[in-house]
């Protein structure tokens, strides 16, 4: 005989709460989303970039219906694409750091140094 768990929530509460939360967040986003993005971009540049990058897909699927590339050429292409992404991330990180240094300098908390 299974005894009821007296500390548990009634069935469906978590799903209803999640649904309501998402609906409320969507309504707020539809009203204030663009303004929030602009404020974040201006006042929290690194947070802005993190949010933008986090919305990008974690995986990239490439489907080729017909390709004249052999396996070695495909491997080289993949490595080239990986390197381009790494270079882009490094450039973005440098830009964020430079922006932070400029913000610190403009607030009188530091000096601008180029690397």
Describe the structure.
There is one protein chain. With 115 residues, this protein is mainly α. The protein has a domain at 60-115. The protein is built from three helices and no strands. The chain has helices at 13-43, 45-54, 71-106. Helix 1 (13-43) packs across helix 2. The protein is flat and about 60 Å long.
Layout of helices and strands, plus pairs?
Blueprint: H1 13-43, H2 45-54, H3 71-106
Helix pairs in contact: 1-2
Percentage of residues in helical conformation: 55-70%
User: What is the first-to-last residue Cα distance?
Assistant: 71 Å
Give the percentage of residues in beta strands: under 5%
Mass-distribution shape: flat
Largest sheet: none
State the order of secondary-structure elements, H for helix, E for strand: HHH
Q: Which value, in Å, is the CA radius of gyration?
A: 24 Å
Average predicted local confidence, pLDDT = 80
Supply the number of helical segments. Answer: 3
Structural class by SSE content:
mainly alpha
Give the number of DSSP strands: 0
| Low-pLDDT sequence parts | none
Descriptive keywords:
flat; mainly alpha; 115 residues
Task: Please sum up the structure shown.
By secondary structure, this protein is mainly α.
């Amino acid at each position: 005989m299974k005894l009821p768990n007296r500390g548990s929530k009634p069935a469906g509460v978590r799903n209803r709460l999640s649904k309501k939360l998402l609906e409320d967040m969507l309504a707020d986003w539809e009203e204030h989303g663009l303004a929030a993005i602009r404020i974040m971009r201006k006042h929290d540049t690194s947070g802005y970039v993190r949010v933008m990058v986090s919305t990008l897909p974690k995986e990239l699927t490439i489907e080729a219906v017909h390709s004249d590339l052999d396996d070695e050429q495909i491997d080289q292409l993949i490595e080239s694409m990986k390197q381009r992404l790494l270079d882009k991330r490094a450039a973005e990180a440098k830009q964020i750091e430079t922006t932070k240094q400029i913000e610190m300098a403009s607030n009188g908390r530091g000096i601008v140094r180029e690397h």
